[in-house]
Design goal:
This protein is an alpha/beta fold and 274 residues long. The chain has a single domain, classed as Rossmann fold (3-Layer(aba) Sandwich), CATH 3.40.50.720. The protein has nine helices and seven strands. The chain has a seven-stranded parallel sheet with strand order 3-2-1-4-5-6-7, with helices on both faces. The protein is globular, with a radius of gyration of 20 Å.
Length: 274
């Protein structure tokens, strides 16, 4: 059901070609927003736009390099030309090297990760904020619990996501009294195409790493983004919202030991023989 409060509003999603970005763009559309979709893969963007429009929504797909000044300026210009306003933005694009110890990372690959994550988020806000100043708006930037806690073999990713958190807090303070809110979502393990391709064992281990003992869904992240852009969160800015099954809260060992006593294995669950 379309939320009539959101009808006529416009959302921009950078990094919308698949995964969390595509799911969030479709969730915005389901709430009545017109949606501007940005990524480098125009064919994938147009597929997302087609799904939105086939359900009665409005979407504009724009091929965009988030690390390029002219490309990001043109993206917001086209959004304003097509829809006349901008109410919400989700800066979700990411890139970087494959996992490796820090000393094995190629400097050019590291730079690519920083350019997409930090520079891309900066440029997104640089052009989104002026478009929102007249009527107010909400920006959500994509980080990760890796930007809060660190993760081995992901130096560029961790640096980029930590940078996004700091950048977002500065922007939130800059515009807190001008009607623009800036917040961050920090997901844990989510069933995106990357984890799907990694297979069942990777998914099982990722789920066991969370206190909830499962991985999250793209829809769960999308709903967090929508809430941060909604009238229900109007006194929230500069916040980092974990969507991580409890990972950032601390450790939940699968079994506790008592000091001075040997630990005995827990019995395995009975198998269903029906």
């Amino acid at each position: 059901m379309v939320d009539l409060l959101m009808h006529g509003r416009v959302a921009l999603v950078a990094g919308a070609s698949k995964g969390i970005g595509a799911a969030t763009a479709e969730a915005f559309a389901a709430e009545g927003y017109s949606v501007v979709l940005a990524a480098r893969d125009i064919a994938a963007l147009e597929s997302v736009a087609d799904r939105i429009e086939n359900r009665g929504g409005h979407a504009l797909a724009v091929r965009t390099d988030v690390a390029a000044v002219d490309s990001m300026r043109e993206l917001v210009d086209r959004a304003m030309q097509r829809f006349g306003r901008l109410d919400a933005a989700f800066n979700n694009a990411t890139d970087g090297p494959m996992p490796a110890p820090l000393a094995d990372i190629d400097p050019d690959d590291f730079d690519r990760g920083i350019a997409t994550n930090i520079r891309g988020t900066f440029l997104g806000m640089k052009y989104q904020i002026p478009a929102m100043l007249a009527s107010g708006g909400a920006i959500v930037n994509m980080a990760s619990i890796a930007g809060l806690n660190g993760t081995a073999n992901l130096a560029a990713y961790v640096a980029g996501k930590a940078g996004i958190i700091g950048l977002s807090k500065a922007a939130a303070l800059d515009y807190a009294d001008q009607g623009i809110r800036v917040n961050v979502v920090a997901p844990g393990p989510i069933l995106t195409h990357h984890l799907e391709q990694a297979g069942p064992e990777a998914q099982r281990l990722a789920g066991l790493a969370t206190p909830m003992r499962r991985i999250g869904t793209v829809a769960e992240v999308a709903q967090a983004v929508l809430w941060l852009c909604s009238p229900q969160s109007t006194f929230i800015t500069g916040a980092v919202i974990p969507v991580d099954g409890g990972q950032s809260a601390g450790n939940k060992p699968p079994q506790m030991y008592r000091p001075g006593q040997p630990m005995t294995p827990e019995p395995e669950p009975a198998k269903d023989r029906s």
